[in-house]
Specification:
2 strands; 12 helices; 2% strand
Length: 285
């Protein structure tokens, strides 16, 4: 509230034409805090001839007139300019309030049509995959409040059942746990919100992995780790495969041994003259 000297000026909501339900609830609270709601809802009797009243009746009439003008001033301040034109000729706060109520809340026929639309919207509510629990929870509660304002009998259990059966797939486990472990007729909306948000935090923790683990997984997919117990430069079923440097040195050593063997005096053949298997009567010769 703003302060004007020693008087507190309440912060007034503004009626735009699309927010009548919320606006009317806040205005009722404001009128109640200022002891004005009775004069707005019921009004007061304006005598045809005030001179016939006694002093007490005149005092009461003066107080009622003052309250009524104060309430009417609040209504004037709480509407847009286009809406103000509809109530600018209202003589009392009750008349102005009734005019707005009829225009935006409607009679029984309009109210029935609005209820049908809200019921359909309520049944079609589904949680989006990218939506947070609190965001979806607020959407459901908002539609539920509109249904109640328009006369729908809507218990908290029905709202809870709606939320549980319309959650996204990743909340399936917590939904089943709540349905099996809790009595939905005694469960409050606040407790349900807390349980779902706790599960949401766990999901976020599991989805986020440490940088070291992500690096190891990246190396694994590149081929640095293949098979159980195999390190770098090892492939196959546990048999070590030398790298290209080791393989080059081994080939050179084998070539030198072969050359010495071919040129030795006891060799059966000379290098360059015969490259086949030595002739003999058996393999042991």
């Amino acid at each position: 509230m703003a302060t004007n000297g020693n008087t507190l000026q309440p912060q007034l909501p503004r009626l735009t034409g699309k927010n009548y339900n919320q606006w009317s609830i806040m205005m009722k609270a404001l009128f109640g805090s200022q002891d004005l709601w009775e004069i707005v809802e019921i009004g007061y009797d304006e005598p045809a001839d005030p001179t016939t009243l006694n002093q007490q009746q005149l005092t009461t009439l003066k107080e009622n007139r003052k309250k009524d003008k104060k309430a009417l001033f609040f209504i004037y301040q709480a509407v847009d300019e286009a809406i103000f034109e509809r109530i600018s000729t209202s003589a009392t706060s009750k008349e102005a309030w009734s005019t707005l109520n009829t225009a935006y809340k409607g009679e029984d026929k309009v109210k029935t049509i609005r209820l049908q639309a809200l019921r359909g919207e309520f049944e079609l509510l589904r949680m989006k995959e990218t939506e947070y629990v609190e965001e979806y929870f607020n959407r459901v509660v908002s539609i539920s409040n509109q249904l109640r304002v328009n006369g729908e009998e809507l218990k908290d259990q029905r709202i809870i059942e709606k939320i549980l059966r319309s959650m996204s797939k990743k909340y399936e486990h917590i939904v089943v746990a709540i349905e099996e472990s809790k009595d939905l007729s005694e469960l409050s909306l606040e407790s349900l919100l807390g349980s779902l948000q706790s599960h949401e935090l766990r999901i976020k923790q599991f989805e986020s992995s440490p940088p070291e683990q992500a690096f190891q997984m990246q190396e694994f997919h590149r081929g640095g780790f293949r098979g159980r117990g195999r390190g770098r430069n090892f492939r196959g079923g546990g048999r070590s495969q030398p790298d290209h440097h080791t393989r080059g040195r081994t080939q050179a050593s084998n070539y030198q041994v072969q050359s010495n063997h071919e040129t030795s005096p006891g060799n059966h053949y000379e290098r360059g003259r015969y490259h086949g298997r030595p002739r003999g009567r058996g393999r042991g010769n």
